[in-house]
Hints:
The protein folds into two domains: 3-41 and 107-219 and 483-510, Rossmann fold; 239-464, 3-Layer(aba) Sandwich (Rossmann fold). Helix 1 crosses helix 14 and helix 5 runs parallel beside helix 7. It is an alpha/beta fold. It is built from 16 helices and 26 strands.
Amino acid sequence: MKGALLIAGTTSDAGKSVVVAGLCRMLTRRGVRVAPFKAQNMSNNSVVTLDGGEIGRAQALQAQACGLAPSVRFNPVLLKPGSDRRSQLVVRGRAVGTVGARDYFRHRQQLREVVAAELASLRAEFDVVICEGAGSPAEINLRATDLANMGLARAARMPVLVVGDIDRGGVLAHLFGTVAVLDPEDQQLISGFVINKFRGDVELLRPGLDRLTELTGRPTLGVIPFAEDLWIDAEDSLSTVADAPVGRPLPPVGTEWLTVAAIRLPRISNSTDVEALACEPGVSVRWVSEPSRLFDADLVVLPGSKATVDDLAWLRRTGLAAALTARAAAGKPILGICGGYQMLGRRISDTVESDAGVVEGLGLLDLDIEFADPKVLRRVSGRSLLEGIPLHGYEIHHGRVRRSTDNAWLELAGAPEGSVSGAVWGTHLHGLLESDEFRRMWLRRIAVAAGRSGFVVADDVSVAAIRSDQLDLLADLVEDHLDLPQLERLIDEGAPVDLPTLTAVAASASR
């Protein structure tokens, strides 16, 4: 097998990332040398690669599905939104500036060359490259600057499958409309459809699929059922909804639950940090956005942010800042990660991200933060200063600690890191809670601080193993529910040469 395939979606969060991950894992299990590729991602969920850059979290998971280390090659252009109008532009893993829509238009030719070079390199090295689109190819207002959908498919002559999420309703209209609004040249590459998250008897859907084929001249290559156990590594911000649970909590080992409230910041970044907690039996994690949900929780997590100063102001407007202060005064545990850690300090000096100058923090930790270039990007190992337990993670931040009187609780690469004061903990380290032995130790401390004597930490939970099981589940879903011979033909041979334009099919069907 030799070739490439683009997985597009009718909407954001339609299932592109998980279908790509499932295809990558399925092909890898069959001995195919496969690599993922997303030309341009817009996400604040990112990871640091072994080559010292940052890419979207989904591409790191897809790389793992292929048995590969994360690399900037798999996501050469990353946009990290800091506001509704401006995003940090990351090219080949490095931040090169902040852009708006008009600025980005000026960069398009240079970025197109970067994308083309990386894709060509991967196609030369691997048997198959499975590409993920961005948003929807039906965003025709952005077609002139498109690097990740039909612009990429046209440039590389790749067949395209469009994924639709039936959970959102109207999936057949979404699939039809996605093709209908495209130029005839783009339509020629849309080779079929995949329906995601189906519940019930697929035969009830069959007449609609048959009619969709009549109207578009394109088959549905599979209907993937809803999988309740599939939840880890949700990249899109649409998946991080306030008052929604994280994962599927397992019953406690002991007699009590431990409850975690994770604050859903407007510009949240690396929301996946809390997923490691949700892997633990008896730990219930929920996203929250209003103050009353903080008082009863055993632990509150203040996660990272791509707009630290703006999200700090939001905490104050919503009353969440006052609730955090009340928790700290009562000795109830709080954990701040990266941007959340910075907000817990006394002062933030920011002339890089928001250009706000000096801003007062929450004052729950005695530290000062100064934003500076270049951005800190590193994967790092270390140990806990509490019990000497080894740990690992990665850092992505502009903010530096310039002054701190609180005790450090971590040691990274031989240097102290993080701050703890009473029941308030802070660190710049993402992925910290994926270190299994460390997480168990720390949760025991949190349970004691929260007065949960009946909570027992399981001694056999492995986040890495759970993530691997999730990838195998995705591969099983793809293998069991997609037309693999037809899929393989698309990869080997490209889009069928006789695909009609939708206008021609519709005219024929109406006669």
